[in-house]
Design a protein that fits this description.
Helix content: 25-40%
Strand content: 25-35%
Strand order of the largest sheet: 2-1-3-4-9-5-6-7-8
Order of helices and strands: HHHHHHEHEHEEEEEEE
Mean pLDDT: 78
Number of strands: 9
Shape: elongated
Distance between the termini: 40 Å
Amino acid sequence: MTGQEKNDRSRVIGWSPEAAARLKAAVKRYGSQGKAAENAGISRPSLVEILAGRATPTNGTFANLCRVLGVGASEIAGGYTATEGPLYTRVPSPGEPGDMAFVPLHDVVVSAGHGASAVEAGESAESLGFPTGWLRRQFGDPAKLRIVHVRGDSMAPTLGDGDLVMINTDRRDPVDGIFVLRLDDQLMVKRVLFPSARRVLVTSDNRDYDRFDRLVDLEREDGLHLIGRVVWAGRSM
């Protein structure tokens, strides 16, 4: 057995009812115990036992759950997770160097039509890690953040084909900006302008593309649903 395997199978030191409650709240935000368990590589009954405080997770399981849920280990457990080896060191407190939050990464073709519910729920087998303190300072609650791939050049030169965009699902207020949205069952990333309380202009930065100018009842979300505001973009050079 390798040292890594030994670390992964050892239990989290200092696990508490409070930690279980924080993990339960993170799973609730995620939206599905079954999906959280599946993506973390454990059974749903095992997750239920952990959330109820009747079982202590292994370090490997705990790390996987934090990755899937997009939370930092210290946000849930705090203090120490173990006593020996590279995984058995003090977990940084929020804001300290090394504390990481994992943002769900969605392999969704944004502008080609599906996956809106998965993006909103954060249901993804992949994630990208960022310093928790930086995420909080820049964008707020890490649990509200999602990352999606951009496909196509309709938002060029602002966004290009293959770019990654981070969206904040907690920011859906009617203020001009770039949003991931669902329009007539099509999932897309577009610039959204609000010239009046009810008039919404959905447009592409690439002027070779058509723009949508339509009257939408925002309270009814008639044909238009804002999933989240784009707050960050990354690309390969």
